[in-house]
Amino acid sequence: MILLQHDNFFPDLEQVRSDAFSIPLLPCAEYNDQHNRSEDWPGKRSDVLSSAHPKLNDHIHQMIHRLPMFMGLQFNCMIHYRGQGTEDWVHMDQEPLAGICYINPTNYNSGTRIYDTNQQVVSDITYVQNRLVMYSGGYLHSGYGHFGNTHTQGRTTINLFLRSQD
């Protein structure tokens, strides 16, 4: 299993948050209509940051490339918000490597769980502000403890999915 946790990921977190909060977020159905996609996920999400906010996208990649095992890898990045009342969603990603960075204040009742094939928890990562978590996308996983009524104070993450090398 690939699972990496890196705390204090962004040295300029407040600027990252400001940039992230300036980006429009859409519920899945609207997102699919607007971007001609057929995805399925709960909450609200931005378009890929390479389109929605190229400067923030470049900054995220600069920070990721400081970690030797991710040097040179390119990710599709987006902002994702799942507020209070959002159900947990156990799933696998299509990409072989995925990650999230928690950008709002720490909430010890929230986080991400990684499961085995019997949906038994094998890792539980707490929602700690400015924590990056990278994991194998092929493992079952789920966010939990969704909180807040807006993306500026709720369970908001930067999601990363390894981009295929065309």
Determine the strand fraction and express it as a percent band.
Answer: 25-35%
Query: How many β strands by DSSP?
Result: 10
Report how far the terminal alpha carbons are from each other.
25 Å
Q: What value does the Rg take, in angstroms? A: 15 Å
Poorly predicted runs of 5 or more residues: none
Name the strands of the widest sheet in spatial order.
1-8-5-10-4-3-2
The CATH architecture can be named as Sandwich
Top CATH class? Mainly Beta
**What does the average pLDDT come to?**
94
Largest sheet: 7 strands, antiparallel
Give a quick set of tags describing it:
7-stranded antiparallel sheet; 3-stranded antiparallel sheet; about 170 residues; alpha+beta; Jelly Rolls
What can you tell me about this protein's structure?
It is a single chain. With about 170 residues, the chain is of the alpha+beta class. It is about 20% helix and about 35% strand. The radius of gyration is 15 Å and the shape is globular. The two termini are about 25 Å apart. The model has no long low-confidence stretch (mean pLDDT about 95).
What's the gist of this structure?
It contains 4 helices and 10 strands; from the N terminus they run βαβαβααβββββββ. The chain is an alpha+beta fold and 166 residues long.
Task: Summarize the helices and strands and which ones pair or pack.
Blueprint: E1 3-6, H1 13-21, E2 26-27, H2 28-35, E3 44-45, H3 49-52, H4 54-64, E4 75-82, E5 97-102, E6 107-115, E7 121-127, E8 131-136, E9 140-144, E10 155-162
Antiparallel strand pairs: 1-8, 2-3, 3-4, 4-10, 5-8, 5-10, 6-7, 6-9
